[in-house]
Amino acid sequence: MGSKLGLACGVFCAVVVATHRRLLALAIYGTMLALAGGCGGDSGPPRAVVSGTITYQGKPVETGEIRFIPTKGSKGPMSFAPIIDGKYRVAVRGGAVVGAARVEIFGYRPDPNYKVPPVDQEGPGIGGPRRVEPPKTQFLPAKYNSQSELETTIEGGSGEITRDFTLTD
Length: 169
Description:
Layout: H1 2-37, E1 47-48, E2 50-56, E3 59-60, E4 63-70, E5 79-84, E6 87-90, E7 96-97, E8 99-110, E9 136-138, E10 151-154, E11 161-162, E12 165-167
Parallel strand pairs: 2-11, 2-12
Antiparallel strand pairs: 1-7, 2-3, 2-6, 4-5, 4-8, 8-9, 8-10
């Protein structure tokens, strides 16, 4: 009786394991099909990588953000990039949307009126002192960001496009 029970239990376990393997194989196969189905379809509007320099009153904008917002019939999402040491490069998701675009430029610098609080002896997390950075304020005139009338045209093609911006008051 014991050997029959052991044999039945062994057969049952083999069936369960085989079923789980089939289900796992189906799940992996289904996932691969779903991922492959997302490839090669409509990838959205044409885009181009855009880079350049940004200066304000003759000096590089050290920290900020640039935005390209499609206008005049150009369709697609806004593209943006950080400005670091006066340079930017819009490359995420293939770059900025090809066509006419409104340009918004924001420049940030530490708030000169901010008083740094005393450093805690025990900061959160790992127990060391915490680093406090002063808040940054946007310093460029509104005519370059919230009320911007800056416009450019992003041409399609395979090469990277350069757009430099020289800003004054």
